C-alpha cells in the first residue's frame, strides 16, 4: 500500500519511521499548499482571476492561499466526513504505478473516492460557474477550495518536514522569500523551459491520472529509496530530495492555474453561441 496522504507517501514499514521523525507528521503540509496556491494565483488570466476573487469569501481579501488548507481543517467535521478519503490514493503493495479503475476508491470500494477522482469532481463542478449563479447544486466556493487543495495533494510526495527544513535552512523561515525563489526558477530559472510540457494537456482527466502516477513514481524512486526502517535521515537525504519537492510544489501551482484558466476562461471553442 502506498498512501499519498496530504503530501505524504508512506509504505507500511515506513509509517513508524516517518511518525517518529516528524512529530507533526499528522499535521499537514500547510506551507506546501500555500505555496502551490500562491504560484497558481499569480498565473491566472483575467477571467479566472476575477472568478476566483468572486468565489472567495471577503475576509481573505482575494488571497486564495489563505484558504488552501481549509479542506484539511474540515475533513473530520461531520458535515464533511465524505471528503476524508479524497486526500490520498492507496495503491497495491510495491506497485509503483497508478491505475484509476484499480486504485481510485475508498476503503469500502466506493469508486472515484481518491484524490484523482476529487480533482475531476471539483473541476467539473467549477465548469458550472460560467452558467451563472442560479445553479445551487454545488457551493462553488467550496469546489474552488477543494480543487486548489487537492491539486497540492496530488503533487506533493513528502511530508512537510522537508519543506520546513528548507524554510529554515535557506529561506529565513519566510514563506515569501521561499515563494520568490520558486517564482524566479519558474520565470527565468531552471524550470522556465519546462513549463509548456507541464501544462501540456488535452484531456484533464487523463492528465490528473498522470499527475498521480508521477507522484507515486517519485515516491518509489526518491522518497523511500535507500531508507531503511529505524534509520535517521541524513542531510544527504534531505539535500538530494529537496529539488524534487520544490519542483512538485511548482508543478502543482502551474497546473492549478492551467485548470482554473481553462475552467473560467473564455476559450473560443467553448463560447456560447447567440440564440437564433
Ligand atoms: C464530489 O463532490 C461532492 C460534493 O459537492 C461530494 O459529495 C462527492 O463525494 C465528491 N466526489 C468526489 C469523487 O470527489
Ligand atoms: C459556501 O461555502 C462556504 C464555505 O463553507 C460558506 O461560508 C458559504 O456560506 C457557502 N455558501 C452558500 C451559499 O451556502
Ligand atoms: C532555484 O534554482 C537554484 C539553481 O538554479 C537552486 O539552487 C534553488 O534551490 C532553486 N530554488 C527553488 C525554490 O527551487
Ligand atoms: C541510493 O544509494 C546508492 C548507493 O549509495 C546510490 O548510488 C544512489 O544514487 C542512491 N539513490 C538515491 C535515489 O538516493
TrEMBL record:
Keywords: Disulfide bond, Endonuclease, Glycoprotein, Hydrolase, Metal-binding, Nuclease, Signal. Its EC number is 3.1.30.1. GO terms for biological process: DNA catabolic process. Residues 1-27 form the signal peptide. It comes from the Eukaryota. It is an enzyme of class 3 (hydrolase). One of its GO terms (molecular function) is RNA endonuclease activity. Coiled coil: none annotated. Belongs to the nuclease type I family. PANTHER family: ENDONUCLEASE 1, ENDONUCLEASE 4. This is Aspergillus nuclease S1. It comes from Dendrobium catenatum. The gene is ENDO1.
Amino acid at each position: 500500500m502506498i498512501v499519498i496522504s496530504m503530501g505524504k507517501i508512506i509504505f507500511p514499514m515506513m509509517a513508524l519511521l516517518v511518525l517518529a521523525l516528524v512529530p507533526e507528521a499528522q499535521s499537514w503540509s500547510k506551507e506546501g499548499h500555500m505555496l502551490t496556491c500562491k504560484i497558481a494565483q499569480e498565473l491566472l488570466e483575467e477571467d479566472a482571476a476575477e472568478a476566483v476573487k468572486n468565489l472567495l469569501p471577503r475576509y481573505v481579501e482575494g488571497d486564495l492561499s489563505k484558504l488552501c488548507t481549509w479542506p484539511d481543517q474540515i475533513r473530520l467535521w461531520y458535515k464533511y466526513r465524505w471528503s476524508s478519503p479524497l486526500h490520498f490514493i492507496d495503491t497495491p503493495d510495491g506497485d509503483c504505478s497508478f491505475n484509476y479503475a484499480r486504485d481510485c476508491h475508498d476503503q469500502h470500494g466506493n469508486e472515484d473516492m481518491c484524490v484523482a477522482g476529487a480533482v475531476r469532481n471539483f473541476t467539473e463542478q467549477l465548469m458550472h460557474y460560467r452558467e451563472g449563479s442560479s445553479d445551487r447544486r454545488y457551493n462553488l466556493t467550496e469546489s474552488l477550495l477543494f480543487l486548489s487543495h487537492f491539486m497540492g495533494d496530488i503533487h506533493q510526495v513528502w511530508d512537510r518536514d522537508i519543506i520546513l527544513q528548507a524554510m529554515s535552512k535557506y529561506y529565513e523561515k519566510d514563506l515569501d522569500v521561499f515563494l520568490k525563489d520558486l517564482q524566479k526558477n519558474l520565470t527565468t530559472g531552471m524550470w522556465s523551459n519546462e513549463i509548456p510540457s507541464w501544462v501540456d494537456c488535452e484531456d484533464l482527466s487523463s492528465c490528473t491520472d498522470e499527475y498521480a502516477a508521477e507522484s507515486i513514481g517519485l515516491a518509489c524512486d526518491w522518497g523511500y529509496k535507500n531508507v531503511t526502517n529505524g534509520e535517521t535521515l541524513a542531510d544527504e537525504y534531505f539535500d538530494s530530495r529537496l529539488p524534487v519537492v520544490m519542483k512538485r510544489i511548482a508543478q502543482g501551482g502551474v497546473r492549478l492555474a492551467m485548470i482554473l484558466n481553462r475552467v473560467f476562461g473564455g476559450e473560443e471553442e467553448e463560447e456560447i453561441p447567440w440564440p437564433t
